[in-house]
Give the backbone structure.
Amino acid sequence: MKIDSVQVRDLTHSYGRRPALKSVSFSLPIGVTGLLGPNGAGKSTIMKLMATALPVQAGSISYGDLVLGKSPVRDVRRLLGYLPQRFSIMGTSTVIRNVSYAAWAHGMKGKELSDAVEYVLEVFDLSDRAKSRAVSLSGGMRQRLGLACALVHTPRIAILDEPTVGLDPVQRSELRRCISRIGQRSSVLISTHLVEDLVGVAEQVLVMNEGILCFAGSVVELAQAGVSRERAEGLSSGLEAGYTAVLGASR
Ligand code: ADP
Protein backbone atom coordinates (compact mmCIF):
# COMPACT_ATOMS: atom_id res chain seq x y z
CA MET A 1 0.00 0.00 0.00
CA LYS A 2 1.35 3.40 -0.98
CA ILE A 3 1.64 6.47 1.20
CA ASP A 4 -1.50 8.62 1.11
CA SER A 5 -3.56 5.70 -0.13
CA VAL A 6 -6.08 6.02 2.71
CA GLN A 7 -8.68 8.25 1.09
CA VAL A 8 -11.94 9.53 2.55
CA ARG A 9 -14.05 11.44 0.03
CA ASP A 10 -17.29 13.37 0.61
CA LEU A 11 -18.24 11.13 3.52
CA THR A 12 -21.76 11.95 4.64
CA HIS A 13 -23.69 10.13 7.34
CA SER A 14 -26.99 10.49 9.17
CA TYR A 15 -28.56 8.70 12.12
CA GLY A 16 -32.21 8.70 11.04
CA ARG A 17 -32.80 12.27 9.92
CA ARG A 18 -30.03 13.68 12.06
CA PRO A 19 -26.89 14.50 10.05
CA ALA A 20 -23.65 13.48 11.78
CA LEU A 21 -21.14 13.99 8.92
CA LYS A 22 -21.38 16.45 6.05
CA SER A 23 -19.17 15.77 3.04
CA VAL A 24 -15.93 15.07 4.92
CA SER A 25 -12.77 14.49 2.80
CA PHE A 26 -9.19 13.79 3.88
CA SER A 27 -6.34 11.37 3.33
CA LEU A 28 -4.00 9.71 5.80
CA PRO A 29 -0.25 9.42 5.28
CA ILE A 30 1.95 6.91 7.09
CA GLY A 31 2.38 8.33 10.61
CA VAL A 32 0.01 9.71 13.19
CA THR A 33 -2.97 11.90 12.33
CA GLY A 34 -4.90 13.50 15.20
CA LEU A 35 -8.66 13.90 14.97
CA LEU A 36 -9.78 16.73 17.24
CA GLY A 37 -13.22 18.12 17.98
CA PRO A 38 -15.74 18.65 20.76
CA ASN A 39 -18.27 16.01 21.81
CA GLY A 40 -20.78 15.28 19.07
CA ALA A 41 -18.47 16.60 16.30
CA GLY A 42 -18.59 13.29 14.41
CA LYS A 43 -15.20 11.79 15.33
CA SER A 44 -16.50 8.37 16.43
CA THR A 45 -18.81 8.19 13.42
CA ILE A 46 -15.83 8.68 11.05
CA MET A 47 -13.89 6.01 12.92
CA LYS A 48 -16.75 3.51 12.96
CA LEU A 49 -17.24 3.99 9.21
CA MET A 50 -13.50 3.58 8.54
CA ALA A 51 -13.42 0.47 10.75
CA THR A 52 -16.38 -1.11 8.88
CA ALA A 53 -18.45 -1.00 12.10
CA LEU A 54 -21.05 1.13 10.24
CA PRO A 55 -21.99 0.87 6.54
CA VAL A 56 -21.02 3.79 4.27
CA GLN A 57 -24.19 5.69 3.28
CA ALA A 58 -22.71 8.36 0.98
CA GLY A 59 -19.24 9.29 -0.18
CA SER A 60 -16.37 6.81 -0.19
CA ILE A 61 -13.54 5.34 1.87
CA SER A 62 -10.74 3.54 0.08
CA TYR A 63 -7.59 1.81 1.28
CA GLY A 64 -5.35 1.42 -1.76
CA ASP A 65 -7.39 -0.61 -4.25
CA LEU A 66 -9.97 -1.66 -1.65
CA VAL A 67 -13.21 0.31 -1.47
CA LEU A 68 -15.36 -0.04 1.64
CA GLY A 69 -18.82 -1.40 0.89
CA LYS A 70 -17.56 -2.84 -2.45
CA SER A 71 -14.46 -4.94 -1.71
CA PRO A 72 -14.77 -8.07 0.49
CA VAL A 73 -15.02 -6.88 4.11
CA ARG A 74 -12.55 -9.57 5.21
CA ASP A 75 -9.84 -8.09 2.97
CA VAL A 76 -10.52 -4.61 4.35
CA ARG A 77 -10.48 -5.75 7.99
CA ARG A 78 -7.16 -7.51 7.48
CA LEU A 79 -5.60 -4.05 7.03
CA LEU A 80 -7.24 -2.59 10.11
CA GLY A 81 -6.62 -2.31 13.83
CA TYR A 82 -9.50 -0.63 15.65
CA LEU A 83 -9.71 0.40 19.28
CA PRO A 84 -13.26 1.57 19.97
CA GLN A 85 -14.02 3.85 22.93
CA ARG A 86 -15.38 0.92 24.89
CA PHE A 87 -13.63 -2.39 24.43
CA SER A 88 -13.80 -5.63 26.35
CA ILE A 89 -10.95 -7.72 27.65
CA MET A 90 -10.97 -11.18 29.21
CA GLY A 91 -10.45 -10.04 32.78
CA THR A 92 -9.69 -13.39 34.37
CA SER A 93 -7.20 -14.34 31.64
CA THR A 94 -3.61 -13.18 31.67
CA VAL A 95 -2.30 -10.27 29.62
CA ILE A 96 -0.43 -12.61 27.25
CA ARG A 97 -3.52 -14.77 26.70
CA ASN A 98 -5.59 -11.71 25.82
CA VAL A 99 -3.04 -10.54 23.26
CA SER A 100 -2.45 -14.07 21.89
CA TYR A 101 -6.19 -14.51 21.45
CA ALA A 102 -6.42 -11.22 19.52
CA ALA A 103 -3.51 -12.32 17.31
CA TRP A 104 -5.16 -15.67 16.66
CA ALA A 105 -8.47 -13.95 15.85
CA HIS A 106 -6.56 -11.92 13.24
CA GLY A 107 -5.43 -15.15 11.59
CA MET A 108 -1.94 -15.47 13.09
CA LYS A 109 -0.46 -18.71 14.35
CA GLY A 110 2.76 -20.50 15.36
CA LYS A 111 6.00 -18.55 15.55
CA GLU A 112 4.56 -15.55 13.70
CA LEU A 113 1.96 -15.27 16.49
CA SER A 114 4.38 -15.67 19.39
CA ASP A 115 6.89 -13.21 17.87
CA ALA A 116 4.17 -10.63 17.26
CA VAL A 117 2.81 -11.01 20.81
CA GLU A 118 6.28 -10.62 22.31
CA TYR A 119 6.96 -7.52 20.20
CA VAL A 120 3.68 -5.78 20.96
CA LEU A 121 3.97 -6.46 24.71
CA GLU A 122 7.37 -4.83 24.56
CA VAL A 123 6.11 -1.80 22.58
CA PHE A 124 3.32 -1.22 25.09
CA ASP A 125 5.50 -1.81 28.16
CA LEU A 126 3.55 -4.86 29.26
CA SER A 127 6.26 -7.55 29.08
CA ASP A 128 6.68 -7.50 32.87
CA ARG A 129 2.94 -8.00 33.34
CA ALA A 130 2.52 -10.73 30.70
CA LYS A 131 1.46 -13.33 33.27
CA SER A 132 -0.74 -10.98 35.34
CA ARG A 133 -4.47 -11.31 35.12
CA ALA A 134 -5.97 -8.49 33.08
CA VAL A 135 -8.30 -7.46 35.96
CA SER A 136 -5.28 -6.57 38.08
CA LEU A 137 -4.04 -3.86 35.66
CA SER A 138 -4.22 -0.11 36.32
CA GLY A 139 -6.29 2.09 33.97
CA GLY A 140 -3.24 3.05 31.93
CA MET A 141 -2.08 -0.54 31.57
CA ARG A 142 -5.58 -1.67 30.66
CA GLN A 143 -5.67 0.93 27.90
CA ARG A 144 -2.26 -0.25 26.66
CA LEU A 145 -3.55 -3.84 26.69
CA GLY A 146 -6.49 -2.72 24.51
CA LEU A 147 -4.02 -1.13 22.09
CA ALA A 148 -1.77 -4.22 22.10
CA CYS A 149 -4.79 -6.39 21.20
CA ALA A 150 -5.88 -3.98 18.45
CA LEU A 151 -2.40 -3.66 16.93
CA VAL A 152 -0.72 -7.07 17.46
CA HIS A 153 -1.16 -8.00 13.78
CA THR A 154 0.69 -4.80 12.68
CA PRO A 155 -2.26 -3.32 10.79
CA ARG A 156 -1.50 -0.90 7.95
CA ILE A 157 -4.23 1.36 9.31
CA ALA A 158 -4.81 1.88 13.06
CA ILE A 159 -7.96 3.63 14.22
CA LEU A 160 -7.85 4.60 17.89
CA ASP A 161 -10.95 6.24 19.38
CA GLU A 162 -9.99 8.41 22.37
CA PRO A 163 -7.34 6.07 23.75
CA THR A 164 -6.20 8.63 26.35
CA VAL A 165 -9.57 9.10 28.08
CA GLY A 166 -9.34 8.50 31.82
CA LEU A 167 -5.53 8.45 31.90
CA ASP A 168 -3.37 10.71 34.06
CA PRO A 169 -0.66 12.92 32.45
CA VAL A 170 2.12 10.34 32.96
CA GLN A 171 0.04 7.53 31.49
CA ARG A 172 -0.93 9.78 28.58
CA SER A 173 2.67 10.54 27.78
CA GLU A 174 3.58 6.82 27.92
CA LEU A 175 0.74 6.10 25.53
CA ARG A 176 1.90 8.87 23.17
CA ARG A 177 5.34 7.28 23.01
CA CYS A 178 3.83 3.89 22.14
CA ILE A 179 1.58 5.40 19.47
CA SER A 180 4.56 7.17 17.88
CA ARG A 181 6.27 3.80 17.50
CA ILE A 182 3.22 2.34 15.78
CA GLY A 183 3.12 5.40 13.47
CA GLN A 184 6.57 4.56 12.12
CA ARG A 185 5.04 1.89 9.90
CA SER A 186 1.27 2.42 9.84
CA SER A 187 -1.29 5.13 9.16
CA VAL A 188 -2.64 5.93 12.62
CA LEU A 189 -5.78 7.97 13.23
CA ILE A 190 -6.25 8.94 16.86
CA SER A 191 -9.19 10.94 18.20
CA THR A 192 -8.96 13.10 21.29
CA HIS A 193 -10.29 16.34 22.66
CA LEU A 194 -6.99 17.17 24.29
CA VAL A 195 -4.75 19.11 21.92
CA GLU A 196 -1.70 18.30 24.02
CA ASP A 197 -2.17 14.59 23.20
CA LEU A 198 -0.97 15.43 19.70
CA VAL A 199 2.12 17.50 20.44
CA GLY A 200 5.25 15.75 19.22
CA VAL A 201 3.19 12.81 17.94
CA ALA A 202 0.89 13.88 15.10
CA GLU A 203 2.20 14.90 11.69
CA GLN A 204 -1.29 15.87 10.59
CA VAL A 205 -4.26 17.28 12.51
CA LEU A 206 -7.91 17.21 11.46
CA VAL A 207 -10.46 19.30 13.36
CA MET A 208 -14.15 18.40 13.21
CA ASN A 209 -17.05 20.54 14.35
CA GLU A 210 -20.74 19.68 13.98
CA GLY A 211 -20.10 17.10 11.28
CA ILE A 212 -17.84 19.36 9.20
CA LEU A 213 -14.08 19.10 8.74
CA CYS A 214 -13.00 22.64 9.58
CA PHE A 215 -9.19 22.23 9.53
CA ALA A 216 -6.65 19.86 8.00
CA GLY A 217 -2.95 20.63 8.31
CA SER A 218 0.15 20.23 10.43
CA VAL A 219 0.44 20.89 14.16
CA VAL A 220 2.49 24.02 13.32
CA GLU A 221 -0.21 25.29 10.95
CA LEU A 222 -2.87 24.76 13.62
CA ALA A 223 -0.80 26.74 16.12
CA GLN A 224 -0.34 29.51 13.54
CA ALA A 225 -4.11 29.73 13.08
CA GLY A 226 -4.37 30.83 16.70
CA VAL A 227 -1.48 33.27 17.09
CA SER A 228 -3.57 36.41 17.60
CA ARG A 229 -6.16 34.65 19.75
CA GLU A 230 -3.50 33.21 22.05
CA ARG A 231 -2.41 36.74 22.97
CA ALA A 232 -5.92 38.15 23.17
CA GLU A 233 -7.43 35.40 25.30
CA GLY A 234 -4.47 34.17 27.30
CA LEU A 235 -4.85 30.57 26.11
CA SER A 236 -2.22 28.22 27.49
CA SER A 237 -0.64 27.07 24.24
CA GLY A 238 -0.47 28.11 20.60
CA LEU A 239 -2.00 24.81 19.64
CA GLU A 240 -4.96 25.25 21.95
CA ALA A 241 -5.42 28.77 20.58
CA GLY A 242 -5.34 27.42 17.01
CA TYR A 243 -7.89 24.76 17.88
CA THR A 244 -10.21 27.36 19.43
CA ALA A 245 -9.72 29.66 16.42
CA VAL A 246 -10.62 27.06 13.77
CA LEU A 247 -13.64 25.91 15.80
CA GLY A 248 -14.79 29.53 16.17
CA ALA A 249 -14.33 30.22 12.45
CA SER A 250 -16.44 27.17 11.52
CA ARG A 251 -19.50 28.35 13.47
P1 ADP B 1 -17.90 12.49 18.64
O1 ADP B 1 -17.23 11.17 18.55
O2 ADP B 1 -17.14 13.60 18.00
O3 ADP B 1 -18.33 12.82 20.05
P2 ADP B 1 -20.14 11.16 17.33
O4 ADP B 1 -19.66 10.66 16.01
O5 ADP B 1 -20.26 10.17 18.45
O6 ADP B 1 -19.28 12.42 17.78
O7 ADP B 1 -21.58 11.80 17.14
C1 ADP B 1 -21.88 12.72 16.08
C2 ADP B 1 -23.38 13.03 16.13
O8 ADP B 1 -24.14 11.86 15.85
C3 ADP B 1 -23.85 13.52 17.51
O9 ADP B 1 -24.86 14.47 17.31
C4 ADP B 1 -24.42 12.27 18.14
O10 ADP B 1 -25.44 12.59 19.07
C5 ADP B 1 -24.99 11.54 16.94
N1 ADP B 1 -24.96 10.07 17.12
C6 ADP B 1 -23.86 9.32 17.31
N2 ADP B 1 -24.17 8.01 17.40
C7 ADP B 1 -25.52 7.95 17.27
C8 ADP B 1 -26.47 6.88 17.28
N3 ADP B 1 -26.08 5.60 17.42
N4 ADP B 1 -27.78 7.18 17.11
C9 ADP B 1 -28.18 8.47 16.94
N5 ADP B 1 -27.34 9.53 16.91
C10 ADP B 1 -26.03 9.29 17.09
